[in-house]
């Protein structure tokens, strides 16, 4: 975690305006009123728009399969040193089919020999997008060998979305929810 205290304090249920309560109601109902959302709801207009896009990226409408999407999200979370993001998506990634060994290998990137060619191409694309905001022709060709055009588009959308999420988590100082494990190796300080 980059900050040991929040810069923007998460809201408590009793603080919510009617607009905030309406935005948070589905999250409370599903048991996912996490600190990220309790923080972001302080700006209801932006939060509403964020939820629309974020829900697309995490939905089955995203053409990238869930496991591959989680590889990309975890790699970007690791590269951005976003401890909260990493912790949340380790859980989601495992539910999406990633093994403990794969989660650990995501920290290393494509250099781990056990990755399939498709997984290695995703990791390479994430590294390039993070470093240069561009996927090289060679990596694009590697992706095209395994993923159709919509999947490649959604890979870039996913990486962009979770780069933004990592930036806001780090900058706002969103602290872990109760029970969320933060990898001590991701400490960005």
TrEMBL record:
Residues covered by the Carboxymuconolactone decarboxylase-like domain: 44-125
InterPro entries, sorted: AhpD-like, CMD-like
Coiled coil regions, renumbered to chain: none
Residue spans crossing the bilayer: none
Entries under Pfam families matching the protein: CMD
This protein's name: Carboxymuconolactone decarboxylase family protein
